């Protein structure tokens, strides 16, 4: 998902006053806007709106952006433009916005005349426009930079990815198969508040729908999935044909339900599957491959974690569901794992990903096919969403690295050891004080800055520990 470029509109603001003073200025500055778009071609696909001189122009261009299903809007002051002409527009706008505080020429020279002053006077237009957005209480990002500098492209790229993720998040539907785990408090959320404040919608799917779906899967699709797994993974010879077919049917049936009902993320709670009475085993391997295909996932009915994994896909690519299992003080790290679900795209590249038959007492069902791998060593980032009550949400983020630690042969599920950049003690003190829940999304690489921009655009409190 993160490999697809964001689609961003450029809203260039000027005013008709300068057309009389400097003939041709609108065309000149429109060319400047197109030059900016060309300069940023590697970080996003751009739609440059016609220069905006008044309220009607601005509303017309913004309608074009909305109708084109763009991910966000980059505001560029082509000259000074009075903010009252766009104040209502930004009050009603729901697309993520970034105010690019830039100008055509990076430095003032003795050769400048009044025309040069006018071409480059966007700074006070940016102040007027930013003031209007602050008064409207609308979140937005700001980038002050020389537009030709690599740093500008880097920062715009980060904002554009966050805009794409936030825009997708606002229309996300999360399907919970059955119900959430009883008495698990940190995964609970007011569904209406989540929908109103951030956008993700939670729906519930009867386990019976999944059971009927498994019976409707054609044999050729089952055979195709098993053949694909044989080619890509190291298959445990202890797995029987019946176990693999059962797993394949559940995976295909889950994905069909997600597609048919428009769910971009989901959760299956082991008790809801086990207590149904018709299933032979849990769909653990299904969760791993569906995550690798770009679906969000959260265990035990955790819709917020599923939404976060989806956001991790959209923002950074290859979101991975995990949780903190235990602290290892000698290595200053935390053992990360879960019951068996994990995105195998974050696996080490020097070891095969295995599909194994494993013993699992949880769920009181037969042995589930499970992907086994170790996390890839290197930089990594954890993030989780905290519901603070009402429409208040917090994102807790920790950067660190996955260690090249020794194997743990008895663990039959995805795992790795994460060393926080701030150290286990400081990280966990901060995590707990912030109310960070026990399910997280992990992405390889250091991405706290990306999550920070995501929070700014979504209206979420950001805490890094």
TrEMBL record:
InterPro entries named among the record's database cross-references: Ara_Isoase_C, AraA_central, AraA_N, AraA_N_sf, Fuc/Ara_isomerase_C, Fucose_isomerase_N/cen_sf, Lara_isomerase
Any single GO CC term annotated in Swiss-Prot or TrEMBL for this entry: cytosol
Domain L-arabinose isomerase C-terminal span(s) in chain numbering: 319-461
Annotated L-arabinose isomerase central domain residues: 181-311
L-arabinose isomerase N-terminal domain location: 59-169
Entry keyword set: Arabinose catabolism, Carbohydrate metabolism, Isomerase, Manganese, Metal-binding
Enzyme Commission identifier(s): 5.3.1.4
Biological processes, Gene Ontology terms: L-arabinose catabolic process to D-xylulose 5-phosphate
A single MF term (Gene Ontology): L-arabinose isomerase activity
Domain of life of the organism encoding this protein: Bacteria
Alphabetical list of Pfam families matching this protein: AraA_central (PF24856), AraA_N (PF02610), Arabinose_Iso_C (PF11762)
PANTHER family: L-ARABINOSE ISOMERASE
Name used for this protein in its record: L-arabinose isomerase
Organism: Phytomonospora endophytica
């Amino acid at each position: 998902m993160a490999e697809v470029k964001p689609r961003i509109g450029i809203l260039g603001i000027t005013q008709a006053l300068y057309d009389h003073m400097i003939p041709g200025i609108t065309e000149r500055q429109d060319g400047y806007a197109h030059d900016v778009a060309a300069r940023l071609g590697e970080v996003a696909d751009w739609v440059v709106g016609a220069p905006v001189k008044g309220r009607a122009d601005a509303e017309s261009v913004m309608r074009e952006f909305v109708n084109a299903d763009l991910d966000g809007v980059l505001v560029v002051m082509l000259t000074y433009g009075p903010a009252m002409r766009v104040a209502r527009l930004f009050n009603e706008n729901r697309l993520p916005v970034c105010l690019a505080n830039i100008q055509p020429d990076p430095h003032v020279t003795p050769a400048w005349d009044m025309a040069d002053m006018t071409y480059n006077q966007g700074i006070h237009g940016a102040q007027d426009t930013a003031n209007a957005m602050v008064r409207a209480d609308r979140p937005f990002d700001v980038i002050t930079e020389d537009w030709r500098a690599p740093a500008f492209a880097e920062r715009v790229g980060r904002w554009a990815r966050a805009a794409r993720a936030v825009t997708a998040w606002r229309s996300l539907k999360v399907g919970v198969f059955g119900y959430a785990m009883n008495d698990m408090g940190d995964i609970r959320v007011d569904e209406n508040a989540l929908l109103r404040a951030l956008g993700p919608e939670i729906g519930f799917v009867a386990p019976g729908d999944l059971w009927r779906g498994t019976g409707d899967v054609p044999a050729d699709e089952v055979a195709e999935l098993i053949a694909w797994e044989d080619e890509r993974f190291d298959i445990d010879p202890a797995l029987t044909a019946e176990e693999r077919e059962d797993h394949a049917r559940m995976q295909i049936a889950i994905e069909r339900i997600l597609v048919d009902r428009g769910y971009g993320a989901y959760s299956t709670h082991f008790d809801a599957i086990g207590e149904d009475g018709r299933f032979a085993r849990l769909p653990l391997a299904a969760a791993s491959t569906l995550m690798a295909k770009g679906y969000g996932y959260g265990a035990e009915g955790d819709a917020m974690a599923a939404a976060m994994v989806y956001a991790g896909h959209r923002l950074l690519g290859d979101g991975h569901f995990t949780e903190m299992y235990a602290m290892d003080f000698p290595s200053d790290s935390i053992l990360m794992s879960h019951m068996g679900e994990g995105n195998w795209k974050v696996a080490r590249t020097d070891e095969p990903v295995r599909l194994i038959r494993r013993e699992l007492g949880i769920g009181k069902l037969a042995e589930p096919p499970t992907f086994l791998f170790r996390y890839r060593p290197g930089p990594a980032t954890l993030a989780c969403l905290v519901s603070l009550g009402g429409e208040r949400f917090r994102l807790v983020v920790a950067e660190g690295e996955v260690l090249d630690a020794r194997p743990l042969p008895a663990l039959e599920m995805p795992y790795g050891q994460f060393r926080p950049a701030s150290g286990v003690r400081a990280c966990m003190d901060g995590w707990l004080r912030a109310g960070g829940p026990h399910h997280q999304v992990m992405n390889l690489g250091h991405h706290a800055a990306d999550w920070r921009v995501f929070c700014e655009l979504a209206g979420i409190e950001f805490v890094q520990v």
